[in-house]
Amino acid sequence: MRKFICTMLMIVMMSLVFTSLAFAVDQAAPVASGGGIESFAELVFGSGLVKWFKDGGWAMWPILLVTIYGLAYIIWKFIALFTGKVNLNNFLAKIIPLVKAKKYKEAIEIAKNTRGPVGQIVYAGLLKADKGVDAVEKAIENAAMIEMSYLEKGFLELSTAITLGPMLGFLGTVAGMISAFDAIAAARAVDATIVASGIKIALITTEAGLIVAIPVQFFNNIFVTMVDRQVIEMQRASEKVIEALLEA
To answer: Which residue has the higher pLDDT, 10 or 183?
Structure first.
């Protein structure tokens, strides 16, 4: 977990440095075509996307930061849930006969070497197998609470990205509309060409915020489903182990 925190801090710091430098370069002196950060971005993402990003104005930079933040947690959450997935039927087929035969050491070793919450709660329970079923149930409950806290990690950060993306987009929208009205006030006339730039900024930032929030929300829903499935598997595994202990 410490390694993940350090990695996330590095990602955030690098993102802040990158966006700050890029914003400073963009404000101080536009980079000539074919060189610098803009040229590199065009090479990686395409000139159309870079132009769209630049047209969105300053609000696109914090939106970019939120995008990197959300993407990092999507990748981490996917890896964490995928590595914690276990074939429950195969796992129980190995554990249950050993528990019924009171071969607790062999069962404990299998559970210990099984990744994910299912293996961990069964492992915690079997450690108390010699102290009776009540002790096993209590150990499983405590382990399940700990594993649930691990399973729920990352959802707050994903929700933050889902919320901040559109909010920053709407902030850019307001800034764009203010720019449009300033242009009208300066020209003392209402002309579509005068307000077009401000309105364009407003629409692009709104679009960018939604582009960030929609896929993050999609993956968040998938992760919720995966967590619910693992919770059901934890309950089923604990029930089967308790039943096997009662039959032993």
So the answer is: 183
Residue 240 and residue 190: Cα distance in Å, rounded?
74
Encode pLDDT of 169-184 as tens digits: 999 888 888 888 887 7
Q: Is residue 157 a contact partner of residue 80, using CB atoms and an 8 Å limit?
A: no
Helix (H, G, I), strand (E, B) or coil at 35: coil
146-154 contacts, C-beta under 8 A, 24 or more apart: 146/120, 147/117, 147/120, 147/121, 147/234, 148/117, 148/231, 150/80, 150/117, 151/81, 151/84, 151/117, 151/227, 151/230, 151/231, 152/227, 153/80, 154/73, 154/76, 154/77, 154/80, 154/223
Q: How far is CA 13 from CA 60, 68, 71, 100, in A?
A: 18, 11, 15, 53
Polymer length of the chain: 248
Each domain of the chain, given as residue ranges in start order, spans 56-248
Between residues 22 and 229, the one the model is more confident about: 229
